[in-house]
Design brief:
The chain is α+β, with helices and mostly antiparallel strands. It has one domain. 24% of the residues lie in helices and 30% in strands.
Length: 96
C-alpha cells in the first residue's frame, strides 16, 4: 500500500466525535465519495460503518488502522467492478 492511497482519504466532521470518511478521488456531490461513517467510542476505539465499500462495521484502535482498512476495501471494490444486483423472485400478492 502506498502513502498516496491513504492521502486520497479525508475525515469530514459531522459532530464532536463523528465523521464521514470520504474519497477525494470521487466528486463530493457523488454518493460514492462517502466510504464510511466513523465514530470515536468512549473506549477510545474508532467504529466505522462501511457504506460505499461493503456492508457492516468494524472497530479500530487507531485512525491509521481505519485508513488502512478503508484503502483495502477500496482496492477490493475496484477489483470487483460493478456487480449486477440479484433478481428478486416474484411472489404473488397476499389475499385478504
Amino acid at each position: 500500500m502506498e502513502h498516496d492511497d491513504i492521502r486520497q482519504l479525508v475525515l469530514t466532521p459531522l459532530a464532536d466525535r463523528a465523521w464521514r470518511l470520504c474519497d477525494r478521488d470521487v466528486a463530493r456531490n457523488e454518493v460514492a465519495s462517502v466510504i464510511a461513517y466513523v465514530e470515536l467510542l468512549d473506549s477510545g476505539a474508532y467504529e466505522a460503518v462501511w457504506v460505499a465499500v461493503g456492508l457492516g462495521s468494524a472497530r479500530f484502535p487507531t485512525l491509521e488502522g481505519l485508513f488502512r482498512a478503508a484503502v483495502e476495501k477500496l482496492d477490493q471494490s475496484r477489483s470487483l467492478g460493478a456487480l449486477k444486483p440479484a433478481p428478486i423472485p416474484h411472489r404473488p400478492p397476499a389475499h385478504a
